[in-house]
Write a structure and sequence with these properties.
2 domains; about 0% strand; mainly alpha; binds heme C; Cytochrome Bc1 Complex, Chain D, domain 2; single chain
């Protein structure tokens, strides 16, 4: 029991010492390892060390083609609603590609065609985002 107490006191002293004295790299590594177990990283705070990386908030970077497809396009293109060519319909997409070519198909997706609204209802999608999403749909229809 006394040994455990001593260990706790030593650990606490080490942690305190770390902020007062400068430690050698070897000592610093040990202190970091002890700190990593007990430290809490809150969302929005700068997190130190790899052990806390998992707690980092999710970044809201540019959307992936998959994110756009599965929020904006799937409703029509998974089901064929309104006569939309289904994703995964290899024959249908191959015929479309042979008939019009990739550039026209992408332009039609951006500008709208028939029952397909401009940008497939993704009003805040850039042309580039529509392009990568069309490429993904075609990739999944080969
Ligand atoms: C409201 C239903 C609907 C939504 C949502 C929708 N589409 Fe479509 N899409 C259609 C229909 C209908 C067609 C067939 C138009 C035609 O050939 O007359 C079509 C056709 C297309 C084509 C083929 C164009 C061509 O020239 O043959 C592409 C590419 C396409 N959509 C991409 C997308 C993408 C990317 C999204 C999401 C950002 C999307 N669509 C969302 C209904 C939809």
């Amino acid at each position: 029991m006394h040994k455990l107490l001593m260990l706790l006191v030593t650990t606490a002293t080490l942690l305190t010492a770390a902020s007062v004295w400068s430690l050698s790299p070897g000592e610093q590594r040990i202190v970091d390892r002890i700190k990593a177990v007990g430290s809490v990283c809150l969302e929005g705070e700068e997190c130190e060390g790899a052990s806390t990386a998992a707690a980092a908030p999710v970044a809201s970077g540019p959307r992936t083609a998959d994110e756009i497809y599965s929020t904006k396009c799937f409703a029509c293109h998974d089901t064929g609603a309104a006569g939309a060519p289904k994703t995964g319909d290899v024959a249908g997409w191959t015929a479309r590609l042979d008939d019009k070519g990739m550039e026209t198909i992408i332009a039609n997706a951006i500008n709208g065609i028939g029952g397909m609204p401009p940008k497939g209802t993704c009003g805040d999608c850039s042309d580039e985002e529509i392009t990568i999403t069309v490429e993904l749909m075609i990739e999944r229809s080969k």
